[in-house]
Design goal:
The protein is α/β, with parallel strands linked by helices and 234 residues long. Strands 1, 2, 3, 4, 5, 9, 10, 11 and 12 form a 9-stranded mixed β-sheet that branches. A 3-stranded antiparallel β-sheet has the order 6-8-7. The longest helix is centred in the middle third of the chain and has 12 residues, at 101-112. The protein is globular and about 50 Å long. The chain contains 6 helices and 12 strands. 20% of the residues lie in helices and 28% in strands.
Length: 234
Amino acid sequence: MNKIYPTAADALDGVLFDGMLIAAGGFGLCGIPELLIAAIRDAGTKDLTVASNNAGVDDFGLGVLLQTRQVKKMMSSYVGENAEFMRQYLSGELELEFNPQGTLAERMRAGGCGIPGFYTKTGVGTVIAEGKEHKDFDGETYIMEKGIFADLSIVKAWKADTTGNLVFRKTARNFNPPAAMCGKVCIVEVEEIVEPGELDPDTIHLPGVYVHRIVQGEHEKRIEQRTTRKREEA
């Protein structure tokens, strides 16, 4: 089975439809599937629900889909770097399902493992718990969170072999593995593709059984907030 596609648009062909739920990997602008996001924008797919830690910034990452009004709802844990995200939410143009960060990651992982729901203490006694089932275990109260079962996963990895085994580099190994797991279809963009056997099995972070399509490309790797200090005088 050939999993390699020449472009992001080709990899998304026949997968996109209006109103779908997409799980997107990355954290801020680190490890985001920027090529696939751009291809979704160009395809014009609308009324999207996107599960992602955040929505990038105004003109990059998932922020470009907010600019084009293609996103109906975000399932996120952090919204602080995107002014357009904030504007649309406060004006009632965008739905937001707010999740604690660990809960969002576990909801994705649970979906990938076929687990429909789980209990957690995180969020008990806050607005996060409103409308959710509460249950006591050993005298402690927990709320039930549902696993995320996405129509499509879009993720960014460093390397892949042609069977879809993935290696993520440093901080990019954050939301990408759980996001990849929970989609009915998983499409990954990578910097390098190698032949089977070239990856050390001990370095593989996600097995190829989760990956359906792969595209290789060049990435901008923009820095979200550049913080520097003056060079010390010699």
